[in-house]
Amino acid sequence: MALPSLEHFSYKDYDTFYEPSDDTYLLLDALDADRRFLADTVQPSVCLEIGPGSGAITTALATLLAEERGFSLMLAVDINASAATATAATAAANSVTLPVEVVQGDLANALERGLSGRVDVLVFNPPYVPTPPEEVGTQDIAAAWAGGRRGREVIDRVLPQAAALLSNKGVFYLVVVQENRPQEIMSVMKGLGLSGQTACTRRAKNELLSILKFTKAPP
Ligand SMILES: C[S@@+](CC[C@H](N)C(=O)[O-])C[C@H]1O[C@@H](n2cnc3c(N)ncnc32)[C@H](O)[C@@H]1O
């Protein structure tokens, strides 16, 4: 899937929010590979991206779904206010025809109650880089990568939220690196009632990136 136009940003803008990189492209490819599954099987009404950064994924997903079928709502929440502003700007610059609502916030904390069991497509390319724990929890550009111990501190907080947010037909795409221990994440999710698989894997520079894909396990 092509990266949306980001020509409305200057090089300097990427000092304040995440510039799309190999992880972004792998997630775009995973969503594109699932185009038919998303359009024909999931048929999403509500999509949510946590941590949209530049808005590239939010815009690409909204564009993909608009091409395939009408759906009601694309939501995005980022802890970094500059990223939230950037995401709205990218959707507008690419003339996304679907409603895109962007808010600043910590994960889905503000949305969890209202959206419980209603999110059909959930996407998160999280801060996955192992860092000292004190680097986690800022609201600036460092929030794009600082993942704390084993790069898992933000990931571990989102897992129960994802399980609560997903609709019965919902799907959750999560970017991870090897240091995050993907098999352990899958077993945590299994305990929360979601079955996981590795949608794709790619080595990029010093990172072994994977996209984990979770769906609700049949009761
Ligand atoms: C690796 S970047 C990914 C950006 C974009 N989705 C992409 O793929 O290019 C991680 C994003 O998550 C955001 N983020 C980090 N912690 C967050 C949190 N607790 N709640 C919401 N967003 C968060 C960061 O600000 C950043 O925009």
TrEMBL record:
SUPFAM superfamilies: S-adenosyl-L-methionine-dependent methyltransferases (SSF53335)
Subcellular compartments: Nucleus
Keyword Signal appears in the UniProt entry: no
Main location per the UniProt record: nucleus
Classification via PROSITE patterns: N6_MTASE (PS00092)
GO MF: nucleic acid binding; protein methyltransferase activity; S-adenosylmethionine-dependent methyltransferase activity
Signal peptide from the UniProt entry: none
GO cellular component term, pick one: eRF1 methyltransferase complex
Keywords tagged on the record: Methyltransferase, Nucleus, S-adenosyl-L-methionine, Transferase
One example of a Gene Ontology biological process annotation: methylation
Pfam hit, one: MTS
Methyltransferase small domain sequence ranges: 30-185
Alphabetical list of CDD domains matching this protein: AdoMet_MTases
Family statement drawn from the similarity comment of this UniProt entry: Belongs to the eukaryotic/archaeal PrmC-related family.
Alphabetized NCBIfam families for the sequence: hemK_rel_arch
Protein name (Swiss-Prot/TrEMBL): S-adenosyl-L-methionine-dependent methyltransferase
